[in-house]
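[job 4471] stage=fold_predict status=RUNNING
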Amino acid sequence: MATTWSRRLAIFLGASLLLPITSEFVVSRITGENYDFRLALSLILIVGPIALLLYYARPVRMTARLIMSLGLTAGGLAVAALGFAMTVWPVPEGFGIPTVVIGLGVASVGALYVGRARYDVPQELPAPHQPADPNQVKIERHPPFRAGTHNPVIDMIVKAMSVDDLHYVAYHVDGRCVMTLDLLDHPQLSRFHDVVEPYQRRDEYRRHGETIEGILRRLNEEFRTLGSGDLIRLVLDVERGAIYYHMVTADRNRYLISVTLNQYKVHIADRKCAHLVDDIRVHLGQPKLTDLELPRD
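[job 4471] inference complete, writing C-alpha coordinates
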Protein backbone atom coordinates (compact mmCIF):
# COMPACT_ATOMS: atom_id res chain seq x y z
CA MET A 1 0.00 0.00 0.00
CA ALA A 2 1.06 3.57 -0.63
CA THR A 3 0.86 4.42 3.05
CA THR A 4 3.14 1.62 4.28
CA TRP A 5 6.31 3.66 4.10
CA SER A 6 4.81 6.65 5.93
CA ARG A 7 3.37 4.50 8.71
CA ARG A 8 6.66 2.69 9.18
CA LEU A 9 8.47 6.03 9.40
CA ALA A 10 5.87 7.30 11.87
CA ILE A 11 6.32 4.22 14.05
CA PHE A 12 10.08 4.65 13.90
CA LEU A 13 9.85 8.31 14.93
CA GLY A 14 7.46 7.47 17.74
CA ALA A 15 9.69 4.69 18.99
CA SER A 16 12.75 6.95 18.75
CA LEU A 17 11.20 9.15 21.45
CA LEU A 18 11.74 6.36 23.96
CA LEU A 19 15.53 6.31 23.59
CA PRO A 20 16.41 9.85 24.80
CA ILE A 21 13.56 9.92 27.34
CA THR A 22 14.49 6.53 28.80
CA SER A 23 18.21 7.30 28.75
CA GLU A 24 17.70 10.58 30.59
CA PHE A 25 15.52 8.84 33.16
CA VAL A 26 18.11 6.10 33.78
CA VAL A 27 20.93 8.67 34.12
CA SER A 28 18.86 10.70 36.59
CA ARG A 29 18.25 7.57 38.70
CA ILE A 30 21.95 6.68 38.69
CA THR A 31 23.21 10.16 39.53
CA GLY A 32 20.40 10.87 41.99
CA GLU A 33 19.39 14.05 40.15
CA ASN A 34 15.83 15.16 39.48
CA TYR A 35 14.43 14.00 36.16
CA ASP A 36 14.06 16.88 33.68
CA PHE A 37 10.53 16.55 32.31
CA ARG A 38 11.06 19.57 30.08
CA LEU A 39 13.32 17.58 27.75
CA ALA A 40 10.73 14.84 27.38
CA LEU A 41 8.00 17.42 26.74
CA SER A 42 10.13 19.17 24.10
CA LEU A 43 10.76 15.94 22.21
CA ILE A 44 7.10 14.94 22.31
CA LEU A 45 5.93 18.35 21.07
CA ILE A 46 8.43 18.31 18.18
CA VAL A 47 8.49 14.69 17.04
CA GLY A 48 4.98 13.66 18.09
CA PRO A 49 2.97 15.79 15.60
CA ILE A 50 5.29 14.77 12.74
CA ALA A 51 4.79 11.08 13.56
CA LEU A 52 1.01 11.48 13.78
CA LEU A 53 0.88 13.37 10.49
CA LEU A 54 2.85 10.66 8.71
CA TYR A 55 0.79 7.87 10.26
CA TYR A 56 -2.55 9.26 9.12
CA ALA A 57 -1.33 10.67 5.79
CA ARG A 58 -2.53 9.10 2.54
CA PRO A 59 0.15 9.95 -0.02
CA VAL A 60 -0.49 8.71 -3.55
CA ARG A 61 2.02 10.54 -5.70
CA MET A 62 5.14 12.22 -4.33
CA THR A 63 8.31 13.36 -6.00
CA ALA A 64 11.80 12.92 -4.63
CA ARG A 65 12.07 16.72 -4.48
CA LEU A 66 8.85 17.03 -2.50
CA ILE A 67 9.96 14.39 0.00
CA MET A 68 13.31 16.18 0.42
CA SER A 69 11.58 19.56 0.74
CA LEU A 70 9.18 18.39 3.42
CA GLY A 71 12.07 16.80 5.30
CA LEU A 72 14.07 20.04 5.20
CA THR A 73 11.06 22.07 6.31
CA ALA A 74 10.23 19.76 9.21
CA GLY A 75 13.86 19.44 10.25
CA GLY A 76 14.41 23.19 10.13
CA LEU A 77 11.33 23.92 12.20
CA ALA A 78 12.40 21.30 14.73
CA VAL A 79 15.86 22.88 15.03
CA ALA A 80 14.31 26.35 15.33
CA ALA A 81 11.98 25.11 18.10
CA LEU A 82 14.93 23.58 19.89
CA GLY A 83 16.83 26.85 19.61
CA PHE A 84 13.90 28.75 21.04
CA ALA A 85 13.74 26.30 23.93
CA MET A 86 17.45 26.84 24.51
CA THR A 87 16.91 30.58 24.84
CA VAL A 88 14.16 30.08 27.44
CA TRP A 89 15.60 27.30 29.58
CA PRO A 90 19.00 27.31 31.25
CA VAL A 91 21.56 26.04 28.74
CA PRO A 92 25.09 27.20 27.82
CA GLU A 93 24.73 30.86 26.96
CA GLY A 94 24.99 31.92 23.32
CA PHE A 95 23.67 28.78 21.66
CA GLY A 96 19.95 29.59 21.51
CA ILE A 97 19.77 32.43 18.97
CA PRO A 98 22.21 30.86 16.43
CA THR A 99 20.24 27.61 16.60
CA VAL A 100 16.99 29.48 15.91
CA VAL A 101 18.59 31.24 12.91
CA ILE A 102 20.00 28.00 11.48
CA GLY A 103 16.68 26.21 11.94
CA LEU A 104 14.67 28.97 10.25
CA GLY A 105 17.18 29.06 7.40
CA VAL A 106 16.86 25.33 6.75
CA ALA A 107 13.06 25.53 7.02
CA SER A 108 13.00 28.42 4.51
CA VAL A 109 14.98 26.40 1.98
CA GLY A 110 12.60 23.48 2.48
CA ALA A 111 9.54 25.71 2.06
CA LEU A 112 11.02 27.18 -1.14
CA TYR A 113 11.42 23.73 -2.65
CA VAL A 114 7.94 22.69 -1.53
CA GLY A 115 6.62 25.54 -3.66
CA ARG A 116 8.80 24.49 -6.59
CA ALA A 117 7.94 20.80 -6.28
CA ARG A 118 4.84 21.16 -8.46
CA TYR A 119 7.15 21.69 -11.46
CA ASP A 120 8.87 18.38 -10.83
CA VAL A 121 7.75 15.22 -12.64
CA PRO A 122 5.84 13.09 -10.13
CA GLN A 123 7.17 9.63 -9.40
CA GLU A 124 4.54 7.07 -8.46
CA LEU A 125 5.24 5.27 -5.23
CA PRO A 126 6.04 1.63 -6.02
CA ALA A 127 3.14 -0.73 -5.52
CA PRO A 128 2.50 -4.29 -6.66
CA HIS A 129 0.07 -4.76 -9.54
CA GLN A 130 -3.42 -5.38 -8.22
CA PRO A 131 -5.93 -6.88 -10.68
CA ALA A 132 -9.39 -5.37 -10.63
CA ASP A 133 -11.97 -6.71 -8.25
CA PRO A 134 -14.68 -8.12 -10.59
CA ASN A 135 -17.36 -6.78 -8.25
CA GLN A 136 -16.07 -3.23 -8.79
CA VAL A 137 -16.05 -3.38 -12.60
CA LYS A 138 -19.08 -1.67 -14.12
CA ILE A 139 -20.26 -3.70 -17.13
CA GLU A 140 -22.73 -2.40 -19.71
CA ARG A 141 -23.97 -4.70 -22.48
CA HIS A 142 -25.42 -3.36 -25.72
CA PRO A 143 -27.09 -5.06 -28.69
CA PRO A 144 -25.94 -7.19 -30.47
CA PHE A 145 -24.37 -8.63 -27.30
CA ARG A 146 -24.44 -12.46 -27.30
CA ALA A 147 -23.77 -14.14 -23.97
CA GLY A 148 -22.28 -17.33 -25.36
CA THR A 149 -19.75 -15.48 -27.51
CA HIS A 150 -19.01 -12.41 -25.44
CA ASN A 151 -19.09 -13.56 -21.80
CA PRO A 152 -15.63 -15.20 -22.14
CA VAL A 153 -14.33 -11.92 -23.55
CA ILE A 154 -15.70 -10.11 -20.50
CA ASP A 155 -13.68 -12.43 -18.25
CA MET A 156 -10.50 -11.69 -20.26
CA ILE A 157 -11.02 -7.93 -20.05
CA VAL A 158 -11.73 -7.97 -16.31
CA LYS A 159 -8.48 -9.86 -15.69
CA ALA A 160 -6.54 -7.20 -17.61
CA MET A 161 -8.10 -4.21 -15.87
CA SER A 162 -6.63 -2.53 -12.80
CA VAL A 163 -7.01 0.74 -10.91
CA ASP A 164 -3.27 1.18 -11.48
CA ASP A 165 -3.40 1.43 -15.28
CA LEU A 166 -6.20 0.05 -17.50
CA HIS A 167 -9.42 1.81 -16.46
CA TYR A 168 -11.85 1.49 -19.39
CA VAL A 169 -12.35 -0.99 -22.24
CA ALA A 170 -15.05 -1.04 -24.92
CA TYR A 171 -15.41 -4.00 -27.30
CA HIS A 172 -16.79 -3.32 -30.79
CA VAL A 173 -18.10 -5.77 -33.37
CA ASP A 174 -19.08 -4.64 -36.88
CA GLY A 175 -18.19 -1.14 -35.72
CA ARG A 176 -20.87 -1.24 -32.98
CA CYS A 177 -20.13 -1.11 -29.25
CA VAL A 178 -21.12 -4.48 -27.82
CA MET A 179 -20.03 -3.89 -24.24
CA THR A 180 -18.10 -1.50 -22.02
CA LEU A 181 -16.23 -2.28 -18.81
CA ASP A 182 -14.76 0.35 -16.53
CA LEU A 183 -13.47 1.16 -13.06
CA LEU A 184 -14.32 4.86 -13.22
CA ASP A 185 -16.41 4.75 -10.04
CA HIS A 186 -13.55 3.29 -7.98
CA PRO A 187 -12.57 5.57 -5.04
CA GLN A 188 -8.88 5.43 -5.98
CA LEU A 189 -9.69 7.09 -9.32
CA SER A 190 -11.63 9.99 -7.80
CA ARG A 191 -8.60 12.28 -8.17
CA PHE A 192 -9.02 12.10 -11.97
CA HIS A 193 -12.61 13.36 -11.88
CA ASP A 194 -12.03 16.95 -10.78
CA VAL A 195 -13.57 18.30 -14.00
CA VAL A 196 -15.45 15.47 -15.73
CA GLU A 197 -17.71 13.03 -13.90
CA PRO A 198 -17.50 9.25 -14.56
CA TYR A 199 -20.87 9.12 -16.35
CA GLN A 200 -19.72 11.90 -18.69
CA ARG A 201 -16.52 9.99 -19.44
CA ARG A 202 -18.50 6.88 -20.36
CA ASP A 203 -20.66 8.82 -22.80
CA GLU A 204 -17.66 10.53 -24.36
CA TYR A 205 -15.61 7.35 -24.66
CA ARG A 206 -18.46 5.60 -26.47
CA ARG A 207 -18.68 8.52 -28.86
CA HIS A 208 -14.88 8.53 -29.27
CA GLY A 209 -15.07 4.84 -30.20
CA GLU A 210 -17.19 5.61 -33.21
CA THR A 211 -15.16 8.71 -34.10
CA ILE A 212 -11.80 6.92 -33.92
CA GLU A 213 -13.10 4.09 -36.11
CA GLY A 214 -14.10 6.62 -38.75
CA ILE A 215 -10.67 8.24 -38.60
CA LEU A 216 -9.06 4.81 -39.02
CA ARG A 217 -11.13 4.11 -42.15
CA ARG A 218 -9.98 7.34 -43.74
CA LEU A 219 -6.34 6.71 -42.79
CA ASN A 220 -6.50 3.19 -44.20
CA GLU A 221 -7.74 4.61 -47.49
CA GLU A 222 -4.89 7.13 -47.50
CA PHE A 223 -2.28 4.41 -46.90
CA ARG A 224 -3.84 1.90 -49.30
CA THR A 225 -1.45 2.83 -52.09
CA LEU A 226 1.51 1.86 -49.92
CA GLY A 227 0.32 -1.74 -49.67
CA SER A 228 1.13 -1.78 -45.94
CA GLY A 229 -2.25 -3.14 -44.86
CA ASP A 230 -4.70 -1.73 -42.35
CA LEU A 231 -3.72 0.11 -39.20
CA ILE A 232 -3.96 -2.22 -36.21
CA ARG A 233 -3.14 0.18 -33.38
CA LEU A 234 -3.57 3.86 -32.62
CA VAL A 235 -2.52 5.60 -29.40
CA LEU A 236 -3.84 9.05 -28.56
CA ASP A 237 -1.40 10.03 -25.84
CA VAL A 238 -3.24 12.95 -24.26
CA GLU A 239 -2.09 15.17 -21.41
CA ARG A 240 -3.81 13.07 -18.76
CA GLY A 241 -3.57 9.42 -19.77
CA ALA A 242 -4.20 7.89 -23.18
CA ILE A 243 -6.94 6.53 -25.45
CA TYR A 244 -6.13 3.39 -27.47
CA TYR A 245 -7.50 1.75 -30.58
CA HIS A 246 -6.52 -1.89 -31.10
CA MET A 247 -7.85 -3.92 -34.02
CA VAL A 248 -8.91 -7.45 -33.06
CA THR A 249 -10.03 -8.83 -36.45
CA ALA A 250 -10.61 -7.00 -39.71
CA ASP A 251 -13.23 -9.41 -41.12
CA ARG A 252 -15.96 -8.35 -38.68
CA ASN A 253 -14.42 -5.00 -37.79
CA ARG A 254 -13.76 -6.06 -34.20
CA TYR A 255 -11.70 -3.63 -32.15
CA LEU A 256 -11.06 -2.36 -28.64
CA ILE A 257 -11.24 1.22 -27.39
CA SER A 258 -9.32 1.41 -24.12
CA VAL A 259 -8.41 4.21 -21.71
CA THR A 260 -5.94 4.87 -18.96
CA LEU A 261 -6.29 8.01 -16.86
CA ASN A 262 -2.78 7.68 -15.47
CA GLN A 263 -0.17 9.43 -17.61
CA TYR A 264 2.63 7.47 -15.96
CA LYS A 265 1.14 4.09 -16.94
CA VAL A 266 0.51 4.76 -20.64
CA HIS A 267 3.00 2.16 -21.88
CA ILE A 268 1.86 -0.47 -19.38
CA ALA A 269 -1.79 -0.10 -20.40
CA ASP A 270 -0.75 -0.26 -24.07
CA ARG A 271 1.05 -3.58 -23.56
CA LYS A 272 -1.94 -4.95 -21.64
CA CYS A 273 -4.25 -4.09 -24.54
CA ALA A 274 -1.92 -5.82 -27.01
CA HIS A 275 -1.94 -9.01 -24.92
CA LEU A 276 -5.71 -8.71 -24.49
CA VAL A 277 -6.15 -8.58 -28.27
CA ASP A 278 -4.09 -11.76 -28.63
CA ASP A 279 -6.23 -13.53 -26.01
CA ILE A 280 -9.46 -12.52 -27.78
CA ARG A 281 -8.10 -13.62 -31.15
CA VAL A 282 -7.18 -17.04 -29.77
CA HIS A 283 -10.70 -17.29 -28.32
CA LEU A 284 -12.07 -16.55 -31.82
CA GLY A 285 -9.83 -19.21 -33.39
CA GLN A 286 -7.40 -16.67 -34.87
CA PRO A 287 -3.60 -16.62 -34.49
CA LYS A 288 -2.05 -14.03 -32.22
CA LEU A 289 -1.01 -10.81 -33.90
CA THR A 290 2.42 -11.21 -32.33
CA ASP A 291 2.71 -14.62 -34.08
CA LEU A 292 1.82 -13.05 -37.43
CA GLU A 293 4.63 -10.53 -36.94
CA LEU A 294 7.29 -13.26 -36.50
CA PRO A 295 9.70 -13.63 -39.43
CA ARG A 296 8.98 -16.56 -41.77
CA ASP A 297 11.65 -19.00 -42.98
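[job 4471] summary: Residues 108 and 163 are 37 Å apart (CA to CA).
[job 4471] exit 0
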